[in-house]
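User: I'm new to structure prediction. If I give you an amino acid sequence, what do you actually give back? Let's try with this one:
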Amino acid sequence: MIREAALAAVLVSLSCPAGVAAIDCSRAKTNAEKMLCSSSRLAAADERLARAYREALNRGVRPEVLLEGQRAWVRDARDACNDVECMLRAYEERTSELENLR
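Assistant: Good question. You get back a string of structure tokens that encode the predicted 3D arrangement of the chain. For your 102 residues, that looks like this:
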């Protein structure tokens, strides 16, 4: 049980890498981090994603499933974007996926 709680805490932190408290924009290095720090639209999308992630955890979706999916999404979708519109689409798609996980 303790292991699951610790994993859940890590998952929530991974789900919101662009949140105001989750990233130090003065240290943003990657293109994705820089875009997240420079766009209020992306910041809002990131907040919606974090909320959907927490709600999935609350619905009982296994933390390991969320962690694996989130890591893959960051690597293959979010970080693959080179512009804000692409990243917004990636966020919308992932948020929808999380909202529909059972």
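You can read the tokens as a compact description of the fold. Here is one thing that stands out. Confidence is low (pLDDT under 50) at residues 5-21.
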